[in-house]
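Need the bound structure for flavin mononucleotide, inputs here:
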Amino acid sequence: MRLDEIDNDCWTALENGAKEPECGFHFLTVASVDQQGKPQARTMVLRDVDRVNRTLEIHTDMRSPKWRALGVNQDVTVLGYCNKIQLRLQGTAELHAAHSEVAANAWQRLSPRTQQTYAGGAPGSDTAISSGDKGDPENNFGVMLIRISLLDWCQLARENNQRALLHYRADGAFIGGKEVNP
Ligand SMILES: Cc1cc2nc3c(=O)[nH]c(=O)nc-3n(C[C@H](O)[C@H](O)[C@H](O)COP(=O)(O)O)c2cc1C
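Answer from helper R.:
Posting the output first, comments after.
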């Protein structure tokens, strides 16, 4: 496959992932480095994709350890697997705090039920100590926009495993890549 076709197919698959809960790319593994320098990974829901700017939108609770860690080190790797295709995406996380323009827009699009998930105790806090705070749940709601700079595509096929690395400029432009051995 040509590199521009791989590029196009990958971003279409990610768009489908954001729309379809049954699609493998709906739940992504997001890896970051914590404040002790240790790798951390967790499952997160892909909420939206901007294929022009090469960003992935992910929602989180600003009280979570990952939010604090990403404030110090923005580097992330996002891993997804769907229909024999692995995508390993390197990028940086742009944090949009509660009530910022990006977060306020995303908040409005959430169902009341999802909004309520931000009303509980802080992620990782002891359930015996904190069962939830009584404040406005929107105060806890943050948006991560992950800007992808490198896409590592790996497709398994019985006799033709394939892999390619695609690079993007900061403005999202595809600046080329190469096929590599899987
Ligand atoms: C299926 C599934 C989807 C999840 N989606 C999200 C998500 O979209 N955002 C989020 O912050 N945490 C999500 N979580 C919880 C995280 O995996 C993680 O446990 C939590 O955010 C705390 O992570 P941290 O300690 O690294 O900050 C999800 C967990 C599961 C099992």
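Comments: Residues 3-117+137-180 form a domain with the Pnp Oxidase; Chain A fold (CATH 2.30.110.10). The chain has one domain: 3-117+137-180.
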